[in-house]
Description:
The protein has helices spanning about 10-35, 40-70, 85-115, 135-170, 175-180, 190-195. By secondary structure, it is mostly helical. The two termini are about 25 Å apart.
Amino acid sequence: MRQNTKASYGSVARSLHWLTALIILSNIALGLWAERIPLEQMALKVQVFSFHKTLGLAALVVALVRIGWALTQTRPAPVHPERRLETLLAEAVHWTLYGSMVLVPVTGWIEHAATDGFAPILWPLGQGLPLVPKSPALAMVMAQVHHVFAFLLIGSVVLHVAGAIKHAVIDRDGVLGRMTRGVPAGRGVAARHALP
């Protein structure tokens, strides 16, 4: 099933979720590695940063497609609506993830466009951005903002994974199955499965 339901995620939402996860985790690793490469290995540092920037733009495209798809779909209902604080926290982490999935690559792209000639994006569409001047001051500000949102993204991913593990190991309520196999979870589902 391609579409979401009130109790499960469809194949498109699941595919976009796991593609986003793969790109983000890979790019976090690339970014952290690039930062730690010593200046004595400048050629390698430039190459890794180029891959990081290029993958960042891919992450932005996938994130926008994912958000667009999510806005047109039924959203599976919370499995435990009576746990209001937990549901609110999950919602906050969800929107923080969405926001940072967009803001991390956008701020990185602005930083790149404001800088002259370091680690090009590996694509044929140019290195600049309309309305973004070459400005070391702007590049420095965007670099700082990029780092803040990157660590917000990392924190959100950690909380998201922790929540998924809690649902799988402690609650055993089928929430993880909604995103891995598209099986239903939520009100009435556990009771139906419990029937002989």
